[in-house]
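VanZ-like domain-containing protein
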Amino acid sequence: MWFLQMVPFLIMIGVVLWQTWRLTRRDQAWGPKITLMAFWVYALAIVALCLAPTFYHFGAHQASYIWIGRAMVIYRPFQDLDLEYWLNLLLTLPLGIFFGLTQRWSWRNLLGLGLLMGFGLETIQFGLDQLIDLQRVVDIDDVITNFGGTVVGGGVYWCLRNTRLVAYFQVAKK
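Predicted structure tokens:
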């Protein structure tokens, strides 16, 4: 059963290796290459932190929860604002920055990405808990912090969008 729990992470390692190989073959400036490679390493870190079996905890859950199948679900927000809450916000902040660097900028699309990231990760965790007992906690606060971190990261990009640094690493054309 332990091997099945590692399947999402192993698939992502394969995707990162494939994308890295693809990127090194592109005829492109170094700035965009670095951005895209950093994005794939970041994606690998997200998968490792969110979709690998839980072997760590930054805090004890004091929040009200229910069990749905094999998944512990925390359904009431803002009950347990511990270190894990704030780390989760920081976890998705780079996604908003990568969004700005790699896509045509739009607040509407950024908000959609934030919602997709929040609901998507928790839905995948819930599904994998049911299928292979991933031992993750499905938490409404994670949806909120993933959304918030993505939007804050997009705001950081938006504030810096006209600088030379951003121009060097920009992948998408303005």
